[in-house]
Amino acid sequence: MSVHYITTDRSERYHTGEDCPAFQAGRAGNAAQGIEPRPLVHLTPDEAQHVRQTPCPECCTA
Ligand SMILES: [Zn+2]
User: Fold this and answer.
1) d(CA 17, CA 5)
2) What top-level branch of life does the organism fall under (predicted)?
3) According to the model, what pLDDT value does residue 62 have?
4) Is the torsion defined by CA of 4, 14, 51, 61 positive or negative?
5) CA 24 to ligand 1 centroid distance, Å
6) Cα of 36 to ligand 1 centre, how many Å?
7) pLDDT in tens, 1-59
C-alpha cells in the first residue's frame, strides 16, 4: 500500500502511482495529441479526501 497518491492539476482522477495503466494511458493520450505532460501533484491520503479529483477505478480499489 502506497503512502501517497499522484495526480495532475488537469486530471479527473488520482492514482496510487505512476505505474497505473490508466495513468499511463492518460499520459500517452496527451502525448499523442501534442499536449505536454502536466507536473505531478503528490497527495497524502488525507489530502486526497479534499481534492476535486476522484479515486482512479483501476488502482484505488481497496
Ligand atoms: Zn490509477
Assistant:
1) 6
2) Bacteria
3) 67
4) negative
5) 8
6) 19
7) 557 999 999 999 999 999 999 999 999 999 999 999 999 999 999 999 999 999 999 99
Residue 13 · residue 22 · CB < 8 Å:
yes
Angle CA 7–12–13, to nearest 5? 50
Cα–ligand 1 centroid distance for 55 (angstroms): 8
The model's pTM is 0.87
Q: For residues 30-45, b (16+ Cβ closer than 10 Å) or e, as one string?
A: eeeeeeeeeeebebee
Closest to 22 in 3D by CA, of 62, 59, 61, 53? 59
The three cell numbers locating residue 21: 495503466
Q: How far is the CA of 54 from the centre of ligand 1 (A)?
A: 10
